Amino acid sequence: MTRAVTVGAGQLGPIQRSDTRKDVVERLLVLLHRAHGAGCDLVVFPELALTTFFPRWWMEDQAETDQFFETEMPGPETKPLFDKARRLGIGFSLGYAELTADGHHYNTQVLVDPGGRVVGSYRKVHLPGHAEHEPWRPFQHLERRYFEAGDGFHVWPAFGGTVGMAICNDRRWPETYRVLGLAGAELVLIGYNTPRHYPPDPGQDRLGEFHNHLVMQAGAYQNGMFVVGVAKCGVEEGVEMIGESAVYAPSGQVLAMCGTQEDELAVARCDLDWCRRYRETVFDFARYRQPWAYRAITDPRDEE
Ligand code: CDT
User: DSSP assignment of 180-246, as one string?
Assistant: First the structure.
């Protein structure tokens, strides 16, 4: 019997600061309906999918920053998404800024099953950018100011397989996929907001989409897993972000990809048993991995 999951990459075009949560949730509902019509079991939405990418601004007033955060999931504005998903019998994964009851701030992604229940939630580990105001930049990338790092990578039994999550910059690090792979992940869901312009080295700007596919194709292949990468893209508050949301197979092949920088759905049928063809052969971890030779990876950093 095959274990097939039909997955939709629910890409979002830009969200401006003036767009309300209600405006955004209506767009997510349209994508959810489209995904249901396309036979999806699961639709994956981007990182920080409910607001504009606010770490591009230096803010000193904590109350102003906290307006971009959710204190509950679902909350009053996101509940319609959970209700509609349950009625349609479709699961989803959604990135948002999380403010906990005891005052911690995380860049979080939640996984919801077709019954509208939260399966699990993941807090971003690799926080890119900087923590101080850097006025020389045309826009800021202040994730290191606004978020704390999560507690590591996790997997959950869901959708007939083993599912993991990662967020944006996590996708550039091979350790992300390997830790998830060692935990048995067969399907890894990743939302992203990636500005085209990289102020510390503008020479990388023309390679944005190339690097995006490079890391997720390699992660999928080297760990024998499906990877779903989903963008919020287009010109948001004057800053262009890359698109090309895609579904990658354990072979590293691209199974489906978005072609616009707008709200769009790319759909692929993922037969999770395909993972075994890599994990029981060339990437049989138990047989071929040589952890003794990798110790430098887990040794503390010099500054620690
Ligand atoms: N959101 C996020 O993690 N974006 C980064 C931008 C480059 S680092 C400043 C990324 O890795 O795509």
Answer: HHHTT-SEEEEEE--BS--TT-GGGGGGHHHHHHHHHHHHHHHHT-EEEEEEB-EEETTEEE----E
